[in-house]
Amino acid sequence: MPAKTNFRGSFTALVTPFANGSVDEKAFRALVDWQIAEGTNGLVPVGTTGESPTLSHQEHREVVEWCVDEARGRVPVIAGAGSNSTAEAIDLAKHAEKAGADAVLVVTPYYNKPTQEGLYQHFKAINDAIGIPIIMYNIPVRSVIDMSVDTMARLFELKNIAGVKDATANMTRVSQQRATMGEDFNQLSGEDITALGFMAHGGHGCISVTSNVAPRLCAEFQSACVRGDYASALKLQDKLAHINLFVETSPAPIKYALSLIGKCANKLRLPMVPATEKAQTAVRQAMVHAGLIN
Predict the structure, then answer these.
(1) Is 104 within 8 Å of 97 (Cβ atoms)?
(2) 159 noted as active-site residue
């Protein structure tokens, strides 16, 4: 039987806190605990928001282990296991399975620009190496390559390919994917700003950057969408839309936002740098507007 998933609601694409040049385990565990207490439906450690490209393999593995340990089965954990090297992605996915993650999130290989056949073979190799569900992550704006619906349909026939994190910001894709793969294909938005439309088109939830700093609002928003209450969802979307966390390249704005509420230091790893003064002002104003700070 294929390993299908039933992920619903607000999943947080967790940042990775740093202190003194190292990963800050204490801050990370506290963030996980706070997220669950605030109503977040699931956690996604060491995705690209978690600055996975600049973590060592050892750090990457530790963060997954800390997340699974701290969550204690209270919410599902979808561990980031993407790479532009298939062998590396397999290694990370195997570790995530061994650590107890519920699923893995695998981004389309960036920079290499594989063909659709290359994408198929990449995901098939990971599928064949593990025994837990795989959520494909399609983000053409960052990885250059766009996985076609046809390729997804081929992959969905494999035992562990369960769904997609869709960051195309293209509403027609949700409907196309739903029409081609059916309701069992687990569709999660990867774009906070278009999450309302995504859900109305038949999506199941969102892997959110914004929910790092506004977990309760994001969970309430997703809950309203899941129950079909789009009037309430729109009011929450209007509030959330002001939290402009993409004024500069993510995760610089979200790390600054989290530093304002004392959840982690405003530190990133090169080549990522902290948000500029102009961006910080925009983030601060947005958080005031959303009622997250005074």
Answers:
(1) yes
(2) no
For residue 176, pLDDT beyond 70: yes
The mean pLDDT of 244-252, rounded to a whole number, is: 83
Residue 129 CB coordination number (10 Å):
16
Strand duo 134-138 + 103-107: pairing: parallel
Cα distances (Å, whole numbers) of residue 238 to 135, 161, 194, 208: 28, 34, 12, 16
Question: Among candidates 130, 135, 133, 158, which has minimal Cα distance to 147?
Answer: 135
What mean pLDDT comes out for the span 158-178?
97
Asked whether the beta carbons of 60 and 52 are under 8 A apart, the reply is yes
Angle at Cα 277 formed by Cα 276 and Cα 283, nearest 5°? 90
Please report the pLDDT score of residue 270 as a whole number.
96
- Catalytic entry in 110, 120, 159, 165: 165
Q: What is the mean pLDDT of the chain?
A: 96
165 labelled catalytic: yes
How are strands ordered across the β-sheet holding 186-189? 42-44, 9-13, 205-208, 186-189, 161-166, 134-138, 103-107, 78-80
Please give the Cα distance from 165 to 53 (Å, whole number): 18
Give the model confidence (pLDDT) of 24-60 as tens digits: 999 999 999 999 999 999 999 999 999 999 999 999 9
**244: pLDDT strictly greater than 80:** no
CA–CA separation, 263 vs 255, rounded Å? 9
137, 255, 256, 263: the catalytic one is 137
